[in-house]
Amino acid sequence: MAALTVIGTSRHNPQALFPTGSCRHILSTTRGGGEPVAAEATSWQKEQVSRAYVHALSTQGGYTLCDWNVDKDGVDVTLRSGPWMVDIQLKCTQSPRIVRGGFSFDLDVETYDKLRNPDRSAPGHLALLIVPPDIGQWVTHQSESIILACHGYWASLHGLGGASGGVTTAIHLPEHQQLTVKAMGTMFDAARRMTNPAGRGVN
Question: What is the pTM of this model?
């Protein structure tokens, strides 16, 4: 049975995403002469690869994943661990905007306000998935594994201040906050603090 491997890279070297050796790309795009070309992905393809990434991590971490089919609350997926939940808005890009210390993404103000709402029952997060510029290199097939070439970063928006813009607001995603199984554990720690703040139940 083929295994799924998720690989990452340095933000300064996107080419490190691309597997080498005897790998075979599942999807390839070429010109008439056979020369490969970069292919811009559609929004639904970016959405689906983001969900696949989060699904793989949450499965490894033992978290239940709820995949919402309507994004009216600014949430694409919800993770659950026992009584605690974490809400995540997923974004995906082939051309990330690199800033000092990480990345920046312009999130629409409506979604931002929903995710930062202090009255939420679950903390809201933004996750930014970065994929290779060429969609043909997103997935490679080896004899014993399927490699998903993407990496992600996250930011907690719960309780933040008002938006800096009228239409979109820039969200900083620190380079050290990679979206990993360990990071999901950190998100759940915040969810526990929300539902059981210090002092509750103490006489």
Answer: 0.79
